[in-house]
Amino acid sequence: MVVCVCNAIREQDVRAAARAGAMSACQAYRALGRQAKCGQCVRFAREIIADERTAA
């Protein structure tokens, strides 16, 4: 599933960044070499990161 259309970031990319230590959407995007643009994806990215943190 696509999380961020502006940056073509997929859910699996955000999950991998979270597993690698990203604690926020901004950190995850930086780890992927990108940054949020319009911001509509940030809430969903946060949910994915929180899900990965609880699963760890």
TrEMBL record:
BFD-like [2Fe-2S]-binding domain: residues covered: 2-50
Keywords annotated in UniProt: 2Fe-2S, Electron transport, Iron, Iron-sulfur, Metal-binding, Transport
Entry coiled-coil feature ranges: none
InterPro entries: BFD-associated_ferredoxin, BFD-like_2Fe2S-bd_dom, BFD-like_2Fe2S-bd_dom_sf
Gene3D superfamilies linked: BFD-like [2Fe-2S]-binding domain
Domain of life of the source: Bacteria
Family recorded in the similarity comment: Belongs to the Bfd family.
Protein name, per record: Bacterioferritin-associated ferredoxin
